[in-house]
Amino acid sequence: MDNIGNFDKLIKEQIDKMKNKYTSFNVKSLRELKFDELYGYKTGKYPDEVVYIVDMIIAYNYLQGSQAYRYDFDKVLNSLSGLIVRDSVFFSSKSIICKLSLKMNNEMTYVNTIEDLLYIVKSCALSNLFVQPLILQIVTNKVYATINELSENKEKFACVCDAIVALISYKVYYSSLYNSFAIKVIRYLENPKNKEPNRWHILTCLKKFCKGSLIYRINTLEQQNQNCSFQDISINLNKDSISNLLANSIEIYSSPTNTTEIEVKVYKAILELNNFLAIKTIKGYESRNSLKELSILKDLSGKKQCFLQLFGDYIIGTTLYIITEYIESTLEDKINKNKIQNQPFSNDEADEIIIQLLEGFAFLKSKSIYHQDIKPQNILIKNRDIKIIDFGVSTTLTTEENSINLYTPQGSPIYAAPEIKDALMERVYDKEKQVAIEYDIEKADIFSLGLMILQIITLQDIVGLNSSESEENRNNLVQKISGWKGRLLAGMLCNRPTERFTFKNALSYIPSKSTVI
């Protein structure tokens, strides 16, 4: 695309293409809307194709010099980012890039807060706008000036740290500036009188751009955070206390949209004692799965080390809030890190993790709870201690019920047992499809756990290893594993459920501490 005229032509072509497809509103009239009305289409539940046209119109009007867009620069940038992600051809044009860069340089004078600047930095990074040298230089100069202006403002420390980390991700270094800023922040955090709500986040950011003795001081501050005990935590849950916790938190997970009837988010929150908590919010909690998960959490809390400690739950409107202890990393994170570093789990470390997993899931079975979504993402790990989480699709049976029955398969198709994998794959393509099939729910969990243990030991990509046709490939991997773990996996990963281990069988393979090999 060589010029703005061609961009205008592309918009007209896209509108003509879409105007007959979406009859609920007039696509053609989008070009006549004011900015706020037009931007509203990005925040509503409109098809991606319509949002794409809206982004193009906003970008076109902005590049044409529309004065109405000057004071909504952050929203304009949001549209530019969305457009670049979807249509890199547009921003491969040198003439368009030059025009955009010059306008951004002028518009930067209207960025008055570090929060707005951070939004711009992150948007540029996510949309690969930083690939363009002119834009990178403009943003860098503004960040440099802003850090100098606001580094003394204690309330802005976290935002400045975020901006620096974003710049460093694109290899923009101002070592002397970053270090002098870091020293001020560290001195501030080292004063026990200063109760910084974003303390944990700031320390995480500082470690990404500090070196030498500063790292030692950061590690010391982190250790001070970790030395607080959960035993003394008492939370009086009410609407105000929930709001205060969320005010000192960061969102770390959000359920994909349009996949379920409920919306789930998880936040990492901090208390005054520098203890971290996890807050899980479930909007539309009335669903049976949500209440069932809460019931399981209450039943398991404090019963065994491999389950999260539950501090309480509270309902505000249609949202359920569940507050538990917080652990930073998942087993998936640990596996990926080891794989990248080409550093397998040590024999002792693997043994400890696997034994905890076997004992934890066997304990669930003893209480007639079947997880149904066993995978590394649902195992938290700190040092070598694991926590089993996410009971949203779990099944609880009565003591009289047989584990072989009609069930609607749940969980991830990648870790599912062969007998339910096909049913789960069908649901990937048809979200509404809920077909009950007869299978042994205990044996299905055993297979998923076995596949996860195989991944821990080998660090192999296990995608596709859970089909009936891949039995030979699984066996080849298992045969390379010596000792009790190899014998264990041979029984857990049988194709036929009737030949597969139960949890009782699996537990019998755990050796005593004196004989672990």
TrEMBL record:
A biological-process GO annotation: mitotic DNA damage checkpoint signaling
Name of protein: Protein kinase domain-containing protein
InterPro entries in alphabetical order: Kinase-like_dom_sf, Prot_kinase_dom, Ser/Thr_kinase_AS
GO CC list: cytoplasm; nucleus
Domain of life per record: Eukaryota
GO MF: ATP binding; protein serine/threonine kinase activity
Lineage: Eukaryota, Sar, Alveolata, Ciliophora, Postciliodesmatophora
SUPFAM superfamilies: Protein kinase-like (PK-like)
Domain Protein kinase: 252-517
